[in-house]
Request: fold
Amino acid sequence: MGALLLVLLLALILGGVGFAVHVLWWVALAVLVLWLLGFAFRGVSSGGSRGRWYRW
Reply:
């Protein structure tokens, strides 16, 4: 009985981790798209600090 509960708990933990990693991949993809869109819309300017859409 204890082994069955341990296996079910392990399956639940691994399933949750898999779901979280899957969601994090989608978040990373969305951030990458926004980053690339920032370069596409603002372009690369010559030296000015106002050419960048981010602060650093």
Remarks:
- Residues 2-41 form one domain.
- The mean pLDDT is 80.
- The chain has one domain: 2-41.
